[in-house]
Structures are given as C-alpha cells and as structure tokens.
Design a protein that fits this description.
The chain is of the alpha+beta class and 157 residues long. Helix 1 packs across helix 4.
C-alpha cells in the first residue's frame, strides 16, 4: 500500500472506488433506495473528482494497492472539514482507511488547523469514533437525502 497526493489522472479510478464503496458498503445509509443512491452517486463522477483534486483549498490523497490499482481516496478542506474518506470494498479491513485518515489529519495540522469536522454516514461512525472523533449533538440531512452524524476531533490535544 502507498498513499500519495492525488493527481488529476486519478479521477477515473477514484470515481470508480467512490461509487463502489457507496453502493456496496453504505447500504445502512441508502438502504438500496434507488433514488437516494442515485442522488448520492451523482457528484461522484471523474469530472467532479478532477475538480476536487485541482482545487487549492483541498488536499486529496489517493491510496494505491500493491498492484498499483486505486484502493482509496480522501479529501480534507482548508476550512477544517474532512469531506471524503472512501476505501474500495476489495480492501476494507486492511488498515488503508486508518493510514489515509492519518495522512489527511497530518495535512490539516500542517495547515495549522486545531480541529476537523465531518459528516459521517451510519456505516462509518464506528470507524471515526475508534480514531478519536466525537459525535456532535445533531444529525444532518444532506441535500442527497442521506442523514449523517456531525462529528469532530481536536487535532491539538
């Protein structure tokens, strides 16, 4: 496994990982509801990914499997928001998510951020809690129809 800063050429492979991860690993969230799933996947195209990677307010990291395939992707934004962290269903449980989270948090600390916030799906809450994130006291209903837990982590403790 290797984690590196994302490049625009990653966009198609990253899009594929995002879409598979959402479809296969986030069933507790979309409940196989075709409309909710379609809304969630709508912004996970190569064009959107390329825009995220090119935006200087974001830091995007790509996880490469030993064979060179894209196995994960994450994005943190300068305002202190962990926007994305997805691992391919083929690589869940191998520690890639933890490694990717460490890289994203490291960049946030380099930017001088004292805290990160995120919106966690039901499927990912336990992962974030295991890595020091705390639930805020409210649920967020996103524009794509998915309900998420508001979470945060102090980076300066």
């Amino acid at each position: 496994m290797r984690i590196r800063e994302s490049v625009p050429a990653d966009a198609e492979g990253v899009s594929h990982v995002l879409r598979r991860s959402i479809t296969e690993l986030c069933r507790a969230d979309h409940k196989d509801n075709a409309g909710d799933l379609q809304n969630w996947l709508a912004g996970k195209t190569p064009a959107f990914v390329e825009d995220w990677i090119s935006d200087t307010n974001n830091f995007c990291a790509t996880v490469l499997a030993d064979n060179g395939d894209i196995a994960g992707f994450g994005m943190v934004c300068r305002p202190g928001v962990l926007k994305l962290l997805y691992i391919s269903p083929d690589h869940v449980g191998a520690g890639l998510g933890e490694g990717l989270l460490e890289v994203l948090e490291h960049r946030a600390r380099e930017w001088g951020l004292a805290q990160l916030s995120l919106q966690s799906t039901v499927a990912a809450v336990s992962f974030y809690e295991a890595h020091g994130y705390r639930r805020a006291d409210h649920i967020i209903c996103r524009s794509d129809g998915i309900s998420c837990h508001a979470m945060y982590k102090r980076l300066d403790e």
